[in-house]
Target: Alanine--tRNA ligase
Amino acid sequence: MKFMTSKEIRDTWLHFFRDKGHSIEPSSSLIPMGDKTLLWINAGVAPLKKYFDGSEVPPRPRLTNVQKCIRTNDIDNVGKTARHHTFFEMMGNFSIGDYFKEEAIDFGFELLTSPSYFGFPVEKLYMTYYPDDVVAKNRWLSLGVKEDHLIPLESNFWEIGEGPSGPDTEIYFDRGELFDKRGPELIQNDIENERYIEIWNIVFSQYNAKPGIPRNEYKELPNKNIDTGAGLERFACVIQGTKTNFETDLFLPIIEKTEELSGIKYDGQMAFKVIADHVKTLSMAIADGAILSNEGRGYVLRRLLRRALKYGKKINLNEAFLYRLVPEVVKIMGPFYDSVHKNQAIVEKVIHIEEMKFLETLSSGEKHLDEALEKTTDVLSKEDAFKLYDTFGFPIELTVELSEEKGYQVDIEGFKALLQLQKEQSRASRTKEGSMKQQEKAFIEFREPSVFIGYENYEVSTPVIKVFDSGIVLKETPFYATMGGQVADKGTINGYEVTDVIKLPNGQYLHVVDNPFDEGEMVIAKIDLANRVKIMQNHSATHLLHKALKVVLGDHVNQQGSQVTPATLRFDFNNYETLKKEEIIEIETIVKNKINEALDVVTTEMPIAEAKKLGAMALFGEKYGDVVRVVDIASYSVELCGGTHVKNTKEIIDFSITSFESIGSGIFRIEAVTGNQLIEKVEAYLHSLIKDNVTLEEKRERLVDELKDISPKTVIELSQKAPFIGSYQDVIELRNYNEKIKEDNKQLEKILQQSKQKDALSNLEQYVTSNDKNQVVHTKDVEMQVLKQLVDAIYDKMNLDVLFLINEANDKLTFMCKSKTISANQLIKAAAKLTGGSGGGRDQFAQGGSGNFDVTELMKHIKGMMN
Model:
């Protein structure tokens, strides 16, 4: 067995199976697309399910991959054991109806034992198999595996309810008695140990499982499949001869950087392992577009970050440090996974911001927890635990961990009950939408087809095919139902108002209309075309907005929700930070330009595979059939969408962003209007001002407040289009006046800064009171942008060897040190340690800072170090 790097292990795996006729599948994103059953991609087969269930035909029936995965069901064991991870890489080979058991075992044996590949000694390998699977046992024996290395286990059968299932064979590597004196009974009795490492599992998907039927009566599948998984981290541990996975080249560079930051040597401590594992998971997930939030996968990441920070405190890492480990993750993972390399700056920024936020929460929460524990005898009450969580944002898992460290228990069941009560109260407080649960069974059983014809037809004579208590179903309908973020059409059936349209489980549209109709009755269904046009304008504008967001902010931006009504459009999206005003204006301008370019909007139905070749954007979480509807706006925006749209972007007329806000951690919302609606809105507002007979000054103030979220450029455009020129001119004049004041204030601030800079840099002799070549200088209220210039000026003019400057401002201290004899980095770090601050840099120049501290004591300490 020869030493290999993790890169060489990946390459060996992929090249071996490529040479055996397998198509190499690239690793999918960690975020599942179109699979609501998964929080993360958690196995090598997960992104290939479309091939196994027959919904797509693979490029070849033989596939291989190295898939990045996240599993978080066992977070608390990470760091405690040698091989638990939240992020890991699964190597796999798959056969969809092609080769089966004997060939799969042959491949496994050759790859593992041949000197051309991994070269494992055969005597070091043990295989388990399902007792009834004589074929698998005999195949291993025929390859030279001794019978005492083959272990039958009843647990070697893979099934998860009804569907494909079958026996499997697991391959273990024996690391020897150094790790455990006991032998193969450790495998046979499923005893946790460090000696026998499971490195590969080969599943023979052979039967169709049926609940209630004995396994020996399962029917065989017509197309038998092979599904395998081999952990890269475990292969690396065995091949590189390390004690645990954490000493391999997949983790050790992160641990070594952590040693450097903490000043503590790694000797197997759990804290180093937790940090290395969690920062890798965070980096890889954020690089794939995940965000940190309070729910779902975002909460998982937030919990990992908080857990890593908590363990950082155990090794003297009391400030934000995880973001400084990201470059090590990129060095390890970047050559194989381009997303983490490409998004390194974003990953660092997101992690750093989240660290700073949590450190503030942690400091405050620990204080409140200590106060609560002071009043506690043995068990922290459910009320106190819930208050920490709900009022102060302190995670319950940290409340439990910190309380237990101090010898207290937490009423966790009581906490869960209060949390559940809050959720129920929150649900009860929401406005209930029309509930039809009592008819759910009737809806499911109703299967008569109904056809939507409303893309081109806005009125139809058609029979009623079903009457429910809550509405009617028509054989054909021009009414679009509420779905995909688009509200339902308005209109009439035989002159009676349709108040809502709901899509039923089997695809028909239920029309909510306040009038009794009979089944078989012929009716005239007619939509409100003016209302539909406004919906189409707003829906097509959301597609342009989505693309513009990607152009300005990056491809990581994706739709997180939308609402399209006749009056407005609302678009929710993810981003790592809030938008600047300039970015919002740029996004708005891009959409306006695309409208003015009069681009054709073409809708086409096609197979989903063909749509993907065109680069059509699928929305996260949406389920698509084999045939999809593609909305193509002159190849600028291409999306899968079933909604209604304009034929040409010029029909949108205009676009204006009316508001922007954050609605959660990393989730933002834009609201906008299209068509003439902004002008109509302002005209109506101006009418109300005239009607109210307010003064010109009041009119100015109220109108400017009404338009506060609209860019000045848009206001000017409105003044050119609207009939109220005089009123708009008032707005423009006031806007111009306000802009002039802002500009004047900027100039005054600039003059003030220049004056302060001139004062600070004149009379440099005032800072140096002796002929000593090593000087410690104390200043007050000097602006940050002036400090570096001041240090350079004093150091150069006074011809000093060492200058250590301490600036006192706003109850904080800033340190800067320039030196050619003593390490400036060491002096700054010493000051930081003394004052509870932070800092660092090079030997020639370094800087840092801290909260308030006795300056006299600090100066005395630094002078002592200089001498």
